[in-house]
Amino acid sequence: xxxxxxxxxxxxxEPVFGRGRRFLLQAIDKYGSINKAAKEINISYRKxxxxxxxxxxxLGIRLVERQAGGKNGGGARLTEEARDFLKRYEMLExxxxxxVDKKFNEIFCKK
Amino acid sequence: xxxxxxxxxxxxxEPVFGRGRRFLLQAIDKYGSINKAAKEINISYRKxxxxxxxxxxxLGIRLVERQAGGKNGGGARLTEEARDFLKRYEMLExxxxxxVDKKFNEIFCKK
DNA sequence: CTCTCGTTATGACAATTTTGCATAACGCAT
DNA sequence: ATGCGTTATGCAAAATTGTCATAACGAGAG
Lengths: 111, 111
Hints:
Shape of chain A: elongated
Strand content of chain A: 15-25%
Number of helices of chain A: 5
CATH architecture of chain A: Orthogonal Bundle
Helix content of chain A: 55-70%
Oligomer: homodimer
């Protein structure tokens, strides 16, 4: 029996950011490619692309600069806005999971 | 832009308890009927029934005593185990949402 | 005894969402 | 021109979720 928690941000009732999207952006930053990033976190390119589009549309911010074709086939990189958003989200997530786990253990396991 | 959080308990990778199931059990306790409880929280009886079955099977605990037919057509009531589980879950949930909201405001709204 | 009533119980089908596949377009390098 | 690895996107398949219809139940009324 394990505890799970999820944290996400919504705009107009639609999710725009959460742990999965965080990992996706981080991986894009690491590889400079949506394709490689999607492989890294085990989702399809299709899904990654959908995520990015939805995020950008909902937030009204450009998060990922993309180029199809060119050197090495092209690639993608994060905008400054994306980095800022990512940084804040990381701060938000920090400590929450640990707190939840601790509480769960106290209540369901100890006694 | 709003923050959302979710908390649930899994057994063998399958969800067995969360906020929705909590409301369901509480409503069953209140009305003595799965049917009425489902209406109260706006889910179909079918879904409520599936939730209960899955919970009981995964936890290996009987949570809801049911009777079809009889006085008033029958009904359902929580077992002691269900009440205990419910109580612990309420303790677990308590304070977490508030903490998340506070953190979110500090990070995303203040500045 | 038979009928009624409001339940629980379940199967079958419909609708929606998610996932995966195929393919086009791009632009630099060779 | 051709090849390469990307981004971009339509479409179908698969999985999930929701809805509806209907059976069974058992006390109580008549």
